[in-house]
Each structure stands twice: as C-alpha cells, then as structure tokens.
Amino acid sequence: MSGIIRTYKRDDEAVLHFREAWYDDEFKQFVINHGVVGHQSSTDETDVDDESAVEGLMTAFAAQCEEDGYAEIPETEQFWVVAQIALKTKDGTDRDRYLERKAKAALTSELAWRGLGTVDRSDISDSKLNIFCLCPDVNKAVNAIKVCIRGEDLDFTKLSIAAAPHAEPTAFKVKHSPKTGAGFTL
Question: Where are the beta strands (DSSP E) in 117-167?
C-alpha cells in the first residue's frame, strides 16, 4: 500500500466529510488530513523513525476509516470539473505555459486541502487553457476554483468552468462563464 488513501463519508445531515493519509518521505512523517469537504482541513503529522512502519500505519488508517464508515469514492461516481481560461494565442506562449503551471499548482493545493478532488491533467489548445479536475462535489469545487483563480491573480474575467459526470466526459454543462448564456467547448 503506497501513495495516498482518500476516503469520504456522509453524516446524518448528508454533509460530506473526508479523511486522507499519506507518508511524507521528505519530512519522515505519516500525515492524516481530514475535515468537511469544501472547507480548510485539519492535518495531523506523526514522525516515523522506521520507514518499515509506514505500511502498518497505512493499513491501520484504512481499517479505521472502514470501521468509521468512510470509503473511497470510485472515479466513476465523481465528476470532471474543467477550469478553462481563454488565451490570446491558439497554441499558447511561454507566458501561457507559465500560467498553466501556476494555475495547476494553485488548484492542486486549493482542492486537496478541502477534500475537493485532484487535478488530473491540463492542456493548451484552440486558444484555451483547460485544467481537468476530478471532484466528488461539483458545486463546492466550482466555488473553490473561482476563489483560487481570483486569489492567485489569474485573469478571472477569462475563466469558464464546466462539469460532467465521469462516465459522460463530453456532457459538460457550464457552471460559470464570463458571458451569460455562453456555451462550453474543449
């Protein structure tokens, strides 16, 4: 077992919570991150003197999550949320590639620390930067993306956001657009 374990659970009021754990080999720590989806999470770190203990910690974490009713949400039950930023050139410039790296890094952090999913990939084509995110909650992810783009001084006026079920990756519906009634194309 390696990488990250990410689990979710709805409480009695249907609020979605998350728990995730991973081993940070740079700082030699076992990290547990948890909270309400869409809100800044809490993080607990435990120093690990013996890396051979990591497997046991991950197994124990997974067992505790299962016992508490937390489970992974299969990708097929999540949503594609695409943050799209209009560019001035068809194939992008060096500045646009810098924008792509900056936006991906900012969105990765914004989504991760709120249990809102992951940045899967990005591309520049047809005068657009597309950042594909896999998310368990569309509306909260859209709000987080808007806050993030504004907060990073990226051009919010050129941002469009659309979402589609994972199983229907071409059925995008616009969730935010700088123009009322605008469509969405990749």
Answer: 118-125, 128-135, 159-165
